[in-house]
């Protein structure tokens, strides 16, 4: 091959910027309602087209009109090995243009960042994977084992029309997949100028959303009344909202805290992890939510007239359970609300936890160190949920690894679902280089 031909090929670190911009410009807002969610199909078709351009065949599955998912398999050198699933969602949470410095679907490049809803959650990773795969196809690179690519819909509203739909209806697409990477992990947290933690997600809290139902005697608001559903519900909600569940440090969180304390020179008291966590700055919010079960009241509903005591009242509680704690949390909540309030689960998805060891973890760590000599990869637990919950139902060992090097002063966690979501262009390009190395050695 002549050097002319080589230079005519787009560099994946240049192409990733175009791919990410294109994806950001497709409004894939997921409102949680099929009638008003838009754009997933267009984004899925875009991905399928970009794969087809370089000879990768994909299948597109709609779970409902417009709710599209794309899956492709890239054959590896050793088909006897289990496949690696690389997954990313294409939907985004809504954005109010009036609140933003740029239009949230403009994909504008400004001050070294690409701006737009989805820039870090997670069209950045979607674009990185596309850039690497396209580069490989053009240059004849074959991965060491099969890689399955899954671009999903509906992650932001519980995955029913995305990952869960695929797992329940098209599980053959994931035949042989043993491990997976997706969001939310692989991003850097600067300790100082020369050292950066890279948080690799090895655990996720469970989702336990429940509705409380209180019943009482309906009546006139002007009279003495001792069986008021609103009062009973309000008491239960307040007890839950004020309750602090006990601290439980899991293996993942312990490993994280030990590494971080060592690096920062913080004294870690195993009986009081909160003191150490408080010193972590912007990531204290993320880590602080992973040492206990949590329960936050989020919605209330009762009544229809100012002077009528309603017979029923309901509240929604967003609970998140540590690995293995969902049943315990349920018992704790029953105790808090008392016998007269009924508990109904509206969403219950298990927590995940895997160990931070093995060849795949080695490959992630080596790829990070090769591109950033100051990298210190650490495991951590995500307090939220991702598509990994669905894919883990297939027995797949899931990691959050969407590599991104971030500027020290960027409050990364605030950008998730936040105003002025943006991704640093050099971070995006760093991610492509890390992913390229990692996937060649996975
Ligand atoms: Zn996401």
TrEMBL record:
Protein keywords: Hydrolase, Metal-binding, Zinc
Pfam (any one): Peptidase_M20
Cited InterPro entries: ArgE/DapE_CS, Bact_exopeptidase_dim_dom, Peptidase_M20, Peptidase_M20_dimer, Peptidase_M20A
Signal peptide: none
The keyword Ion transport belongs to this UniProt entry's keyword annotation: no
GO molecular function: hydrolase activity; metal ion binding
Cofactor: Zn(2+)
Domain Peptidase M20 dimerisation residue range list: 202-326
Chain segments annotated as coiled-coil in the UniProt record: none
Protein family membership: Belongs to the peptidase M20A family.
PANTHER family: ACETYLORNITHINE DEACETYLASE, PEPTIDASE M20 DIMERISATION DOMAIN-CONTAINING PROTEIN
NCBIfam families: PRK07906.1
Name by which UniProt lists this protein: Peptidase
Origin species: Micromonospora lupini str. Lupac 08
